[in-house]
Protein 1
Amino acid sequence: MKTIALIAQKGGVGKTTIAVNLAVTVGMPTVLFDLDPQESAVMWADRRKTDSPHVEFLTERRLADGLKAAEQGKYGLAIIDTPPAAGPQAYAAVQAANLVLIPCRPSLVDLDAIRRTAQLIKSAGNPASAFVVFNAAPHSATTLLEDARAIVEGAGLSACPVILRERSAYRASWPIGRTVVEVEPTSKAAQEITELKDWVLAQLQVCTPEQVQSQEVAV
């Protein structure tokens, strides 16, 4: 089982939105552990009224046991959502992760927190790959994104090549416990989330069931 942690030192950057959209889109049994006391992911799952993905609130003290149980339960992927702070939840999530995603809006207010996030990742002592995911980016923001990448690299982090733009599909899907690929499957938002999913799985070196099936057909 592979594990992804989503962390950020600032609220409103889209951690939970990205977490739930990835959890639905990856195409394998996935557990989403919500370490945020606000339980936003849990409330999203309550509105969803299905068992997939499995969403569960945990404290950081129970994270290791939760991950062990998930692996024994044959989950292929665990996603950890954390509160917007450099606290024990984020620290524990980074230590447990194979891949760390740091959602960030490409604005100076949000980018100011990147250095603190980089310090947290370094202090956790986990060699897992960490990438900043630019989220809710303006549609015409080439220079802004170039400047944001420079700030990210200056903090010792890398930027994910997939950019998530500001899209109304996220606002439409959230209140009903759905994701953009379910509500608007042909939308640009769904396309971007799918691209992010493919990139994430490549980083984790994971094949989805669809990829395995296509390989078998090719053989």
Protein 2
Amino acid sequence: MPRDELTSASGAHRRAVVAPPVDYAIEAYSLKKVYRTRHGKQAAVDGLDLRVPVGGVHGFLGPNGSGKTTTIRMLLGLTAADSGHIRIFDHEVPLAINEIIDRVGAIVEQPKFFPAFSGQRNLELLAQAIGAPRRRVDAVLQGVGLGRRREDKFRSYSLGMKQRLAIAATLLKDPDLLIFDEPTNGLDPAGIHEIRMMMRNLARRGKTVLVSSHILSEVQQIADTVTIIGRGRLLAEGKVSDILAADGQLSVRVGVSDHLRATEILSASGFTVEPLQERQLKVSSSNRELDPAVVNQVLADHDLYVSELVPIQPDLESVFLNLTAGDQRP
């Protein structure tokens, strides 16, 4: 369906919308990849659409086994799609991959470096192999914060430093598009923060960053747009702010002494109630006009008085869990 038309569930057009043109670094439509397993054929990616705007950070989210890595491998021409179309910077992939190969940098698996060589020497060898100017080595090491550790052997690097060196390697040809598959796996909070800031800095420099991740709080802090998939299918896409605003569940955190009785009263009044820790409740409603004062009044009418009443802001994790409930593959 064209993206400039809104259509009801029955298929009837509700209204036409003239949308401003958007440039995409990646466009993929109806992607499908089927693998043979002991239990028969299984679709890792099943009719997936993926659009990544030029510039900024785009989060690519989905449960384990949802098809993220398979999709990324198809984008890079490492795995052939069974059907569908891929365009990167308006070039067909894999047919015209040679036209865009220098404009794309990616980390899909852990890169292999020589443990006994310094970070700088590893990058010099790689630059020579791929035909990148040697002067780029100094620039990318500084860019990822390894300038002072350039002479240290790779085997002495922390996991976060090794990941930064891998990102430096992708930058040797100064690509316009960077694709990172779970770049913060195994990192401590400090390492995650470093990689997050690095991706934002790349976006500020005009690069397009596609990052696959399951750490939703990190994605929410750095991503401008997201795509959420489940079982190889598109579940949601768009600006992070728009996806959060579209989440129909408004909720408040309620502190009350008799939380069991409060749960019964609020449930009978049409609210959805979930227990939280320390005698707190999460009270939700699909009503866009949910007013915390109404929750307070309902409880007060039954001689229950709240000690806390705080609106809960929607987050990407709650949207993600709602969309992907039951989508994890066995």
Protein 3
Amino acid sequence: MIDINNFSNKALLVHIDKYPIDINNSKEEFHDLVVSANIEFIDKIYLTQKNKSIGIKYYIGKGDAELIEEEVKKSNAKLVIFNVDLSPSQERNLELLFSARVLDRTGLILDIFSQRAFSHEGKLQVELAQLNYLSTRLVRGWSHLERQKGGIGLRGPGETQLETDRRLLRARIKTIKKRLVKVGNQRQLSRNLRLKHNTPRISIVGYTNAGKSTLFNLLTDMNTLAENKLFATLDPIHRKLELEYKKNAVISDTVGFIRELPHHLIESFKSTLSEVAESNLLLHVIDLSDDNFSAYIEEVNSVLESIGAKDIPKILVFNKIDQNYNPENFTHLEKDSFCYVSAKTGYGMENLRKIISEKIFEDYEFLTVKLDNSQGMVRSSIYENCNVIEEIFEKSGHNTIKFMSNQSYVKYLVKKGLIERKVIEKLKNSQEIYKTG
């Protein structure tokens, strides 16, 4: 990627209004992206593209392009940033017209990601996304070179610098993909271990800058980075979350989603996003103070669908009620479990913890098993993987264990032959268990 710092004090922003009327803060989001990339800008230009066809040469019309050209010369800007995705040819044509570097929306997001990646996997994922993005733009870097020259004394089997660069780029992409597969296998081992121990997995998802990391810190008593910037969290963070009935879960803070997230970016982060797709529960954090939250919910749901996480149970967590709270306006969204919280003040956190436990234990059954002295291994396994509510020791040497378990673990016990299906009796009144527990 380019060195943005070389242009940081000479950037000109071009906002093209092309979103539907229900998205009225696209200007603010574009501004926040630039600020998150630590880029200083000298001016902004606003253009309207609604109901206009996209130009093949410049994306915008020739008149608008010349208007920007005049502003670039007047301000002596060295970098022009567009809030839309440009094709390689459009980017190249604009650079020739402006005599300045041009960066589109995807390039800007990739630059932010490159600054936020700290883990080995995160750096590999960002580099893969950058290389995929640059693969169609290599011609720009070598446009001053001719193709392989012919003629007497000049013929040869050699390749041009452009061809060499493409070959090296493909080789690097192949290497990174192999490394990511290896990291993904290691991640899968960790997931298998959690699955073996019947550990619930919870992922925090949502639009970028909705307050996910602040909520994560409050739930886990951690102090991870939480900034008022877009994509403050890039590398997923996993911590233990204590639930009711002496049960623990693993909760993950994930990268925020954004409108029109580039497809190749989702592909590059597939191993990270697979954590979301294999979760038992999603906490969808929504910024209640943003008037466009309904549209953001749809954007997040669209990304969840693309990674195969659409049908995972979720809780809508309406955050920042200290800035805006009017429940009557959101009754149409109450088809899912929901709650109102303020991750900043801590309001509503106890209620959220209760709802999380209810969701996690929604498919659990309250069971009782009678064991003899020779089944100590079964008893140990139940204590390790289930929620034991009560154990009664009898004079005959038998002991009766009342516990909560999901069906997958019960099937595991039966499949392994540790217990027989006939000795499992479903308790009829779980409320009675709570009293005895």
